[in-house]
Amino acid sequence: MKHVLQRIVWLPLVLWAVVTLTFLVLRLAPGNPLDVIAARAIETDQIERVRAEWGLDQPLWRQYLTFLGGLVQGDLGIALSSGVPVSRLLGERIAPTIELAVSALIISTVVGVGAGVISSITRQRWVDYGVRAFAVVGMSVPWFWVAILLIIVFSVRLGWTPVGGRITAGMPYTTLTNFMLIDTVLTGNWPAFWSFLHHLALPALAIGLTSAGFVARMTRAAMLEIMRADYVRAARARGLYERRIVIGHALRNALLPVLTLQGLQFGALLGGAVITEIVFAWPGVGRMLLDGILRRDYPIVQGTVIFVAFCYVLVNLAVDLLYHVVDPRLRRA
């Protein structure tokens, strides 16, 4: 637990570093929000008025202190392009991203761990070769390529799934938590429920299948190492069934590196699989972040990066805690 406590102590410092770097990089990079306004042929006096209203006429250090002061109070600022609080925009966009991230993580874990275990117990057979080829392809092929391929096959050729979006246009549904899966179940709106799953299938598969390659390769390597351990040979000598040895003894210890990988993967997905969200027109955090960058919208970019960094650190902290649940040796440390 000492390591976990150290991570908790370092959490504020890590977040402060992310906040500072994000603020400085945005200000020092070429271009600013006023360039976007100037491109609309607005009068010079209007541009100066907007500069003063947004505080861009102040020294950099004063802008930084003002930003930190608002952040301490939980204020992420107002979006320059829409005038809507960034916290409200994040509240609307984070739910679709979490739904996509969790779905992709479930697919990658089930497919990857299952394939890795099967590959380890069928070593040097055709099944093993097939899993290893799948893992190499999954590690090599980018998400957006798989996304486009899935659209061509299942949406264009077969017509089984929609091309993009989160739900069929014009379909009524009631928003309670902004998580559409939960809202449609709570309200009993089953047509909207199935429409949402219909739209979620391809983007979740595009991310989940490519990530499954990493998981399968890591699971196979961990399983092969553990299956040669002394306690596994002792379990066989006691006459235990092979299935119990594989699942009850070997797999549990092989999950430690998989937990690390999936924790990092989930943190990255919370940042938004930007290209996948764009390909499928998925209204998540990734699209909002890209729109903010293109518009030089400082509050949107700052708020999104800070929120994602906070989630990323929390996910990694949760992974550290799971280590102590999975591995009893760490509980005694």
End-to-end separation in angstroms reads: 8 Å
Radius of gyration: 24 Å
Number of helices: 15
What portion of residues belong to β-strands?
under 5%
Class per helix and strand makeup: mainly alpha
CATH superfamily: MetI-like
Helicity, as a percent range: over 70%
Tally of DSSP β-strands: 0
- The CATH architecture designation is Orthogonal Bundle
Uncertain spans: none
The helix/strand order is HHHHHHHHHHHHHHH
Number of domains: 1
What do you see in this structure?
- The protein has 333 residues and is mainly alpha-helical.
- The chain has one domain (86-331): MetI-like (MetI-like fold), CATH 1.10.3720.10.
- Helix content is 76%, strand content 0%.
- It has helices at residues 2-28, 33-38, 44-53, 60-72, 86-121, 126-140, 143-157, 180-186, 190-226, 230-237, 242-270, 274-279, 285-294, 298-326, 328-331.
- Helix 5 packs antiparallel against helix 11 (242-270), helix 6 (126-140) crosses helix 9 and helix 11 packs antiparallel against helix 14.
- The chain is globular and about 85 Å long.
- The mean pLDDT is 80.
Describe how the helices and strands are arranged.
Blueprint (H helix, E strand, L loop, with lengths): L1 H27 L4 H6 L5 H10 L6 H13 L13 H36 L4 H15 L2 H15 L22 H7 L3 H37 L3 H8 L4 H29 L3 H6 L5 H10 L3 H29 L1 H4 L2
Short key terms for the protein model shown above:
333 residues; mainly alpha; globular
Q: Brief description of this entry?
A:
The protein is mainly α and 333 residues long. Helix content is 76%, strand content 0%.
